[in-house]
Every structure is written in C-alpha cells, then in structure tokens.
Amino acid sequence: DHRPDPVVSIDYEERARGLLPPHISAYIGAAAGSGGGSAEGTADWSAVRFRPRALQDLRTIDTRTTVLGTPVETPVLVAPMAQQLGAHPEGEAVMARAAAAAGSLLGVSTNVAVPFSTIAAAGAPWWFQVYVMRDHGLTELLVRRAVEHGARALLLTVDMVALLPATVNPRQWPEGPAKSRLTNLTAAELAAAGPGAVDMDAGISLATIGWLREMSGLPVLVKGVLRGDDAAACVDAGAAGVIVSTHGGRRLGPSVTAARALPEVVAAVGDAGEVYADSGLRSAEHVAAALALGARAVFVGRPALWALAADGETGVQTVLDGLTGELRQVMTQLGAPSLDRLTRDLVA
Ligand code: FNR
After folding, report:
1. How far is the CA of 347 from the centre of ligand 1 (A)?
2. Which residues form the FMN hydroxy acid dehydrogenase domain (predicted)?
C-alpha cells in the first residue's frame, strides 16, 4: 500500500487560543512590526521546489541523526520558548516528556520557571538557551546550574537584546506562575544582584562565545544568525555552529527570512560547524527543504507551544511524531532514504 497515511493535523493554534487567556495567546502569537515576517517565513519554506531522485533503494527510511554528537530519532527539535507555565500548568516538564517520547531534543529558555532537575528527569537531551544578563556573575551561576543538571550545549541567542512591545511583554502579565521565570536562581541570589541585573546585556560580542564555552565546557551554538559573514565570525570565535533564525518573525518584520538566509550561512560555515534553522517551519516538506539546503536539524517553536497549551504531552508528541512520520513520506518521494541524502542538488 503506497498511499500516504491520513494526514494528522498538527495545528493546535485555534484550540489553544480558545483555552488560553488572551494575553498569553497574544504573547505566543506575537510577531515584530507589522507582523508579516512570520507568515513570509513560512511562505519562503513553501516556495522551495524539489528535484526528486529516481530509482533509489527506499525499502528503509531512516530519520535518525546526531546533533552536536547527541543521537536523536528525528531532526525535528523543540525550540527554546520562555515561560511555558503560561501555556500549561507543568510547562517545560511536559514539553520535555513529549520530546523524550518522540526521540527529540528540547531547547530550554533562560526564562524558565520549572526546575532544571524536573526538566532533566524527563530524559530528553536538552540544550540551555542563554540570554546574557547585565550581571554576568548571575548569568554564569545560572549556566553552571544548567550544566550541573545535564544541559549538553548552550544556545547563545543574539537576536533579542531588547524586549517585545509592552502589549505582549510577559512582564506586564498579572502576578502568578505564568509570570515566573529565573526560578532556577534563588530569591537570595536574585536579591543580592540588585535591580536591573537580570535585564538583557545589549553589549554582548564575539568574545561572549569563548566566555560561555570556557565557563561551561559545552559547545556553543549562536542562535539568530542571518548572514554568512556573521556565521563565519561566530565559528572562528569558537562556536560549534549557528542557528539561522528570525526568532519566528519576532525580531524585525522586514527581515530576510530563514529560508533565504540559510544557503548563504551554510556556504560560509562549510565544514567548520553545524548549521540549524528555525522560524516558520510548519510541515515535513519545510523540514526537508531546510535539510536539503544544508541544515543539520530544525527547531519548531509555536506549533509545539500551541500543542502544549491545547493538549499537553499528547499534543506536543502528535506534532513531533506527525512531522517525523510525514518526513518519512517526503523522503520517500524525494528518493532520499536517509537524512544525509537530503542534499543541495534536490533543490531546484
Ligand atoms: C520564542 N523564542 C525564543 N527564543 C529564545 O532564544 N529564547 C526565548 O526565551 C524564546 N522565547 C520565545 C517565546 C515564544 C512564545 C515564541 C513563539 C518564541 C524563539 C524560538 O526559539 C524560535 O526561534 C521561534 O519560535 C521559531 O519560529 P516558529 O517555529 O515559532 O515559527
């Protein structure tokens, strides 16, 4: 039977919006400026045209790979997203369990309120996303704590040194669990650091990469790179690679999309590091496009978060397993039985 399986819906946005308070939906759905960047990001993945290969041996289709040396069952990883207690009462703990069940990997935001120990207990490999705070000592304390609990890499986010507009800024949320973040630092540690210490440091530089690498002993991926020259400079400065990302269209509305930036970044990095992509990926065809253009794996953001809000662990697992299952079919149609066969020549 060569018919594709029935298509599983992985779009939980409408259901989630029906359940969440409006300020949380607004935050999850937010995009920068006029908001067009978000939809355009998806449209540019959809615009990729493939040149499928004929007569390949397609009896076994394999979606496994390694990411910075960590084996995963799927190249669909979960993007770091802040304050998930707003989407689900157990937040990142549930996201981590779903990632573990799907054989995926989880990005954990600096702005997390669930204890690292709880996230780690789910068993999924996880990478810690770093916003460098103005107080570097406090940043180091938090990073060291993530390392102690088993984070396997650091994602240094460089595209968000300022905050979202006040209308969608979580700092405006009513007091409560959803508003909590940075609870992996103690109240005493935060109090000692003083006011403003946890604001983002707008003065980060290439030297920050080496600082994080030395202090943690972990590989550092730079998240939010959209240019070949920046990517090459990051890798020269000691990064293990970069994530091509527009922060889901949340950084700058009229920005080049991730799909358009990816080939330039892949060419600039060459074999010197691993390149990842996110922003606007909504189907297995999009995932295949990113991998064919040179991404080692991809991250999904909002689809996983809407699913978490609408249907908890089952929802997120449906998204991850749905995309992975659909990816097998796309790989079959492309004549690419393994991820290393998703190569640039497949793109017209
Ligand atoms: C994010 N993103 C993000 N990135 C990051 O490095 N640190 C963070 O704390 C957050 N927080 C965050 C919250 C919410 C609600 C969203 C939607 C996104 C960006 C995220 O990691 C990723 O780059 C995008 O979400 C990918 O785009 P899509 O898949 O959402 O289109």
Report:
1. 27
2. 1-348
